[in-house]
Design the sequence.
């Protein structure tokens, strides 16, 4: 039986599907009580119904500051404390550079940067009071290498990476660890349309040294590691969970 996180309480945003749902399941399997947050109420309830440790479903839309503050308050109310915060909710946008406008930038940064920072700010006092806490932010391979038509998305994830390094320095003396996980291409519903394009599956496999697409569980297992005592001396880092994709450029022969 996995009891690495027994007695811990976790809040996972974007928990209704994909990486977020897999993370909620993995944290629950490790013994944590999980609060699941996302916009999709029915999907959230379906994920929560499969968990064992008295899960809590907290529907919310993180695009507005008031909703972020309300989520933090509600999570503390129902859980009593939040030991582990997983900022997984994100807005992935592919847009040609010439079609980028202020509304798009504001929309992406509101969810991908502002919401995680405000959620951390709202939960820091409680974590500081107890002298411990763990924050895990979901970044992306796009923050590490150039990916086409993703300038705004990449910028938002790179901003979160940079913010996390500063937060790790600020909050370390309080016993709070802050780390990032940067997935590569993960086989979730977000990629379903792209996978239908002839050759895309094979191209992604060729770009990945481990020669397969990522699975949500691949990311969730690393998140559980970072949340556990096994990572008790790890803070301020971004771990690439991408099958080696971020390091796969072969200058002599193209992609590995």
Sequence:
């Amino acid at each position: 039986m996995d009891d690495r996180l027994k007695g811990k309480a976790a809040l996972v945003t974007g928990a209704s599907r994909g990486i977020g749902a897999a993370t909620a399941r993995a944290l629950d399997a490790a013994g944590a009580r999980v609060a699941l947050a996302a916009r999709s109420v029915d999907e959230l309830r379906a994920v929560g119904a499969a968990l064992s440790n008295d899960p809590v479903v907290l529907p919310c839309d993180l695009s507005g500051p008031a909703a972020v503050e309300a989520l933090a308050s509600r999570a503390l109310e129902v859980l009593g404390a939040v030991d582990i915060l997983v900022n997984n909710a994100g807005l992935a946008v592919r847009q040609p550079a010439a079609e980028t406008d202020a509304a798009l930038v504001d929309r992406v940064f509101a969810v991908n940067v502002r919401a995680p920072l405000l959620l951390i700010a709202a939960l820091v006092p409680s974590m500081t009071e107890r002298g411990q806490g763990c924050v895990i932010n979901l970044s992306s391979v796009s923050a590490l290498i150039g990916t086409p038509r993703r300038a705004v998305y990449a910028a938002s994830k790179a901003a979160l990476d940079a913010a996390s390094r500063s937060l790790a320095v600020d909050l370390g003396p309080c016993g709070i660890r802050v780390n990032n996980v940067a997935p590569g291409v993960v086989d979730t519903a977000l990629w379903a349309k792209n996978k239908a394009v002839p050759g895309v599956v094979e191209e992604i496999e060729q770009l990945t040294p481990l020669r397969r697409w990522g699975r949500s569980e691949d990311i969730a297992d690393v998140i559980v590691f970072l949340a556990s005592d096994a990572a008790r001396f790890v803070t301020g880092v971004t771990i690439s969970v991408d099958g080696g994709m971020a390091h796969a450029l072969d200058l002599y022969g193209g992609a590995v």
User: Anything to note?
Assistant: The CA atoms of residues 122 and 220 lie 24 Å apart. The first helix runs from residue 18 to 29.
